[in-house]
Specification:
The chain is 56% helix and 11% strand. It is of the alpha+beta class. Helix 3 runs antiparallel to helix 4, helix 5 packs parallel to helix 7 and helix 6 packs antiparallel against helix 7. The protein is elongated and about 85 Å long.
C-alpha cells in the first residue's frame, strides 16, 4: 500500500474526512475509491458513497476480503440512511469471508451492524442474542464506543436505566479516546435521551413527566400500572397484555385514570366503546366488555359495579396509575421514529412499525398536510424527516400501534 493510501486511512481513522479527500480525491484505484466512499458517507452524501463503494468492490477483483469490507461499508450506509430493506445475507456472507481471512475487527463490526438493525426494528431478543457473541475487549476505541451504544440502546428499550447509563459512560470514554468528533456527538446525543421525559404518569387526576429511571422504579413498585406504552396492565409480578383487545384496554385506562373513584357508564361508553348516540344495545355491549375485562384482569385486579358506573379494585396494590407516552396524538408512533432526526423511507418505517407500507404512507401524507413532517426526493429515493419533537424520547417505550386505533 502506497504512502498516500496509508495517510488517507490514518486520516479516516482520526475522523479527518477532508484529509482523506485531499489525499485520494483524484484517484480511481480500488483502495482510494473505498476510502473516498467511506469519507463521503461520513459527510452525509450516501448516494455518492454507495456508488464509490460499489466501484471499489468491482475494482478489487479477486481480493475477496477487500470486497467484503466494501459490502460491510455499504451495509453501514444503508443502516445510517434508514434503508432497512438491505439483505442481511450479503452482510453474513461478507462476515464469513472476513472470518476466513482472520480480520476479527471487521467481523465484529459486521455483527455490530446486524445488532443495530435488529434494535432499530424492535427485535430485542434477537439483538441481545447476537450481541452476546461479541467480545469488545480487542476492539479499537471507535468500535468499543459503537458496541456500548448498542448495549445502551437495548437497555433503554428494556427500561434498564442504570445499565444504559453505565454503557453510555463507557461509550463516552471510548469515543474520547478515539477522538472522532462525530462519534463523541453521537454518544452525547444518546446520553441526552436519558435526561428527557420517557413517559407521563397519570394518577388521581394529575399527571407528571417521568425519566427512564422513574419508569423503571414504577414498574418495579407495588402499583397496578396500566401501561399505555405497551398496552399491558401489570403489577410488579404479573403482566396482562391487552394489545389485541383495544376496547378492553381503553376501559382499563379510563378506570385507572379515575382511580380510586369510579367512572360513569356514559363516560365509559364515550371513551372505550366510542358510542356517539347511546342506546340499549350500547349499554348491553358495555356490560359484555366489562365482563370480559373483569375476566382478563382477574389475576391483578377486579372491576366492581357502582351506583353510577364501574371502579377498578387492584389486588395487593396500593395505587392504580397510567403510564402514557410523553406525546399522545394521531400517528405518534410514526413521529417517534422520525424524531431521531434521520431521514426515513416509508418502507423502513413500515418495517420498524410492523405495519403495511400503505398504512405508513397514509400517516405520512396526513402529517405532511399538518406541517409536521417533510419529504425529500422522489419515488424510491423519497425520504421523510422532521425536527426533533420537544419532550419526545423517540422509541424508548414505543410499541406497535394498538389494533383498532
Amino acid at each position: 500500500m502506497d504512502s498516500l493510501i496509508t495517510a488517507a486511512a490514518r486520516a479516516l481513522a482520526a475522523g479527518d474526512l477532508l484529509g482523506v479527500l485531499k489525499r485520494v480525491g483524484l484517484r480511481d484505484d480500488a483502495p482510494a475509491l473505498a476510502l473516498r466512499g467511506i469519507a463521503m458517507a461520513q459527510l452525509g452524501d450516501f448516494v455518492r458513497a454507495k456508488t464509490l463503494l460499489q466501484s471499489a468492490a468491482r475494482a478489487f477483483g479477486s481480493r475477496a476480503a477487500a470486497r467484503a469490507r466494501c459490502v460491510i461499508a455499504e451495509a453501514e450506509i444503508a443502516l445510517v440512511s434508514r434503508d432497512l430493506g438491505w439483505s442481511p445475507k450479503a452482510l453474513d456472507a461478507a462476515r464469513a469471508t472476513l472470518e476466513k481471512h482472520g480480520d476479527w475487527v471487521s467481523v465484529a463490526h459486521a455483527r455490530h451492524l446486524e445488532v443495530r438493525r435488529l434494535l432499530l426494528i424492535g427485535r430485542l431478543d434477537e439483538a441481545e442474542h447476537a450481541l452476546a457473541g461479541l467480545d469488545p475487549a480487542p476492539f479499537p476505541p471507535a468500535s468499543r464506543a459503537a458496541y456500548e451504544l448498542v448495549v445502551a440502546g437495548i437497555a433503554m428499550r428494556r427500561v434498564r436505566a442504570k445499565v444504559a447509563r453505565a454503557a453510555l459512560a463507557r461509550a463516552e470514554r471510548a469515543a474520547q479516546q478515539a477522538g472522532i468528533a462525530a462519534l463523541i456527538a453521537e454518544v452525547e446525543s444518546a446520553s441526552q435521551v436519558l435526561n428527557t421525559p420517557a413517559a407521563r404518569l397519570i394518577a388521581r387526576g394529575e399527571e407528571r413527566p417521568l425519566l427512564l429511571e422513574d419508569v423503571e422504579a414504577l414498574l418495579a413498585s407495588k402499583a397496578l400500572v396500566v401501561d399505555a406504552c405497551r398496552y399491558v396492565v401489570r403489577n410488579a409480578n404479573t403482566p396482562v397484555s391487552l394489545a389485541r383487545r383495544p376496547v378492553l384496554f381503553r376501559l382499563a385506562r379510563a378506570l385507572a385514570e379515575a382511580w380510586p373513584k369510579d367512572v360513569s357508564r356514559s363516560d365509559l361508553l364515550a371513551r372505550a366503546v366510542r358510542a356517539k348516540h347511546v342506546d340499549e344495545s350500547h349499554r348491553a355491549r358495555l356490560r359484555v366488555e366489562i365482563g370480559r375485562l373483569r375476566k382478563a384482569l382477574r389475576t391483578v385486579a377486579d372491576v366492581t359495579a357502582t351506583k353510577d358506573g364501574f371502579a377498578l379494585v387492584p389486588h395487593n396494590s396500593r395505587d392504580a396509575v397510567v403510564l402514557a407516552m410523553p406525546v399522545e396524538e394521531e400517528h405518534a408512533s410514526v413521529l417517534a421514529f422520525l424524531a431521531d432526526g434521520e431521514s426515513w423511507s416509508s418502507s423502513a418505517l413500515a418495517l420498524a412499525l410492523s405495519a403495511s407500507q400503505r398504512t405508513v404512507q397514509r400517516a405520512l401524507d396526513e402529517l405532511a398536510e399538518a406541517g409536521k413532517v417533510q419529504s425529500i426526493g422522489r419515488a424510491r429515493a423519497r425520504r421523510w424527516m422532521t425536527p426533533p419533537v420537544a419532550g419526545f424520547t423517540t422509541t424508548l417505550l414505543l410499541p406497535a400501534a394498538l389494533p383498532g386505533d
